[in-house]
Amino acid sequence: MLKLEQLQADIGTSYTNKLIKRLHKFAYIPPKVLQELATQALSEKWAKDLHVLEKYLAVHVAWSIEQGKVTFSDDQFYVSAGNLQTRYGTPLYLIFIKGTDVTKAPWKLIKAGSQINAPALPAPPEIPKGPEIPKGVEIVMQHDHMLKDNEERVSFLKDAPPVAQMCAISGAIQWSLNRGLHLPYWYYGSMNYLVPLYLKDRENITNAPDLVAPIQIANEMLLVRTVLEPHMPYANSRVSVKRHDQLPPWMIDTWNAHADAMDVDDEDSE
């Protein structure tokens, strides 16, 4: 008889940014089944090799197991495919069995669809909420990584002294936070926030920002490790909402413009 405790041991720690690698260590995901899921789900851009869909499953399958949103039969277990639905609003589910090769992943995905024969249908996991953003705390930035290692992203600031660069980004973060423009963002095993940075023009905040900054709340400070181009964090933002159209229009538009050309390495750039 399959037990939840075994799944929780097999899925491992959530403190990682290598989400797809974590999923692959847990279960073999046949490309054919992944494609079947993409075909049945409400249409959206999942990028090359359905990379964003696989990352979405990596997060939501883990949440289901961690939260106990799993049902069992004698030799299979069932989880929801996150909050994915068909175009008619029918929930989608995943069926896993024990893997047959002890040297590889302990589980195998065998079916994805809206019609499954399960003793009980699993509920989707709860999307975790991020912590409250404290007011008036210091914004701490990893300057060398942000502005030297990735200087092509901030080329319009290249002639400014380092302190001026940091003040510009810090000010843009605070400006957006004050207006509630931040959005949820899954990062290293917890829900954090993504903040749009309007550094050149603030006349229309429905337009795409110049950059975006993932922020982490830690020890009464806001930690900023990097800045990204607006389309780059789409995958980690997508897992954080039930439907892709709950993301800001600027994020969907910039993602749609870049999705087909995105490399996996670019997707995880920091």
UniProtKB/TrEMBL annotation:
Pfam families: DUF3825 (PF12873). InterPro entries: DUF3825. Residues 37-242 form the DUF3825 domain. This is DUF3825 domain-containing protein. The lineage of its organism: Bacteria, Pseudomonadati, Pseudomonadota, Betaproteobacteria, Burkholderiales.
